Amino acid sequence: MTPELAIEKREQMLRDGFCVVEDVLTDEFLQELHDESERLIASHTEPAEMVYQGQHVNVHAADNMYIKRLLEWQPSRDALEQLGFGDFAASGGIIILTKEAGGPPLYWHQDWMRWNDPLSCTPWPQTIFLNYYLSDTSRDNGCLKVIPGTHLKRIDLHNQLVPAHEQGARFIEEDHPIMFCNHPDQVDICAKAGSLVMADARLLHAAHNNLTDTRRTLILAWHSRPNTIPEYWDKEIPEIIANRDENGSYPGSRIPGELLQP
């Protein structure tokens, strides 16, 4: 990636909360990850509560050579470095997520778990997810959809959502009019196999249902950075961040509170 393209993608991450880096995985490694994912899925029983996520297989890098290789994959590290995100570190594991053939959509949610912490107001990402797609994605087979800018700005939908995942969303009905709605500002991310989709954990995102007869698989890896100002940041530092008490107590929360403003 050229320096100009890297800056463009970083600016997109800051502004919209996501970007796509194409052709990160080689064809050979992509096939190996596909085969390994299918092997792991074959011995996994999908819990009923995970129907909207599809298969939800947790794998630690220490236990799997393919996942270890993925989390150490140099083209991914290069992409992060080029965007200025070289201080992000992987959590040490991944989740294999699918849209099963004919599977339902994934509800709207965001994945930030520190909404009581002033770090919720950083204009830069603190925690990101990296989605490695093992097959081409489209609206027909359940591609990701996002609402750009919602990592920094509250919209009406924030106030209408059932809290994410185990706090309620996993148990909603498939015809829930809000959780599965098509939002006028949503963007579909149709990624090619081998591409890397990065997004801010605070970004509202969901996925379409899979209308095809073939499973759509991705590997998700969480990455976080230190509670510091990024080296690339040369703009004003928000007062709430500058005055944050590093030793303060900030109880975890998945629910955006007063720190997320319209």
Describe the structure.
The chain is of the alpha+beta class. The protein has one domain (3-225): Sandwich (Jelly Rolls), CATH 2.60.120. The protein has 5 helices and 11 strands. The strands form 2 sheets. Strands 1, 2, 3, 4, 6, 9 and 11 form a 7-stranded antiparallel sheet that branches. The protein has a 4-stranded antiparallel sheet with strand order 5-10-7-8, with no helix packed on it. The longest helix has 16 residues, at 27-42.
List keywords for this structure.
262 residues, single chain, Jelly Rolls, 7-stranded antiparallel sheet, 20% strand, globular, alpha+beta
Summarize the structure in short:
With 262 residues, this protein is of the alpha+beta class.
Total DSSP E strands: 11
Q: DSSP strand (E) fraction?
A: 15-25%
Average pLDDT over all residues: 95
Any idea how many domains?
1
Number of H- or I-type helical stretches: 5
CATH homologous superfamily label: q2cbj1_9rhob like domain
Assign the CATH topology.
Jelly Rolls
CATH C-level name: Mainly Beta
Write the layout of secondary structure elements.
Elements: H1 3-16, E1 18-21, H2 27-42, E2 56-60, H3 65-71, H4 74-83, E3 89-90, E4 93-99, E5 106-109, E6 127-133, E7 144-146, E8 187-189, E9 196-200, E10 205-207, E11 216-224, H5 239-242
Antiparallel strand pairs: 1-9, 2-4, 3-11, 4-11, 5-10, 6-9, 6-11, 7-8, 7-10
